[in-house]
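Dear Dr. H.,

I hope your travels went smoothly. While you were away I took the liberty of generating a structure for the chain from your last submission, since the lab meeting agenda had it listed for discussion. I wanted you to have the full record in hand beforehand rather than looking at slides cold. The sequence, exactly as received, is reproduced here:
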Amino acid sequence: MPLRIGFTGDVMLGRLVDDRQQRRSIDAVWGTVRERLRELDGLVINLECCLTTRDREWQRTYRPFHFRADPDWAIPALEHASVDACALANNHVLDYEEVALEDTIEALDEAGIVHTGAGQTIDEALEPAVWTIGNGTSGIDVAMVSFTDNTPEYAAAENSPGTAWIEIDVDEPETRRCAREALERARQAKPDLLIASLHWGPNMVTEPPDAFRQFGKWLIEDGVDVVHGHSAHVFHGIEVHEGRPIVYDAGDFVDDYRVDPELRNDRSFLFVLAVASDGRLTELRLHPTEIDGCSVTEASPAAARWSRDRMRGLSAQFGTEFERDGESLVLSLEDDEA
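The corresponding predicted structure, in token form, is as follows:
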């Protein structure tokens, strides 16, 4: 049986989510999706906040929003959902200054949740997350790198903490150098599956620009098995390149954001990649979700139909076609192997 690895869009546990979680059960944030998450063999998220109780907000540049969650409930909640790995290269991990990034890393380390994309230096930010899913002969080794083009003032440097910030441009030498350095480190672990998680682009855009498509394909050609994109708050279409999926944007998984009535940033999917024991990708399954009351839930029939139709429409331009299985969409990857 293939192993199943879940990928989500933004998991923002701050503000109203954090407030509500002080007065409800630890796993309430996962709503009706909790059991589906726990049934997976692995789970990767973009953690769109810092885990801290610090109250000094970033003031060096203008930041309209600051997201933090109390690690006393957030870490157990991540554990209840069986989260394996967090992408930290994003535009909120330093919202409460460098000390909050330190708190976040310390909390994740103590919980045994691997992470990548941010650190005390750029060297640490480029270090991959490495872990194993499954066990025995059926287990596979996974490595993940994470980058962002958001909020350059949060970028790590040789002697200062921050994120693995890059410009999304395959023609930019520094971008190629930085990405290849991280990928080479990841390959040293000899993973069966190599993931690139990218927090790229502005909010509320509906399609990836050409530069993102070029960069995503370049990553696949350089050995990445799945591109896990996020940042737009709305999901984008999926492209398959050399038999490998590029999820340009996974949308939002849980947050407290205002909902756009047309773009419906409260609707997305849990993206589940099936991987054989030899590392061969077999399918990508999309389970419709929606956010309700600062929790993620299984999408209603109407919301699921809307998301399926929209995903099909957005992906058609890339030549991607899905089958339907119940409420979910299924993308076969075996037929697309190069």
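Two observations you may find useful: The first strand starts at residue 3 and ends at 11. The chain has a mean pLDDT of 96.

With kind regards,
E. W.
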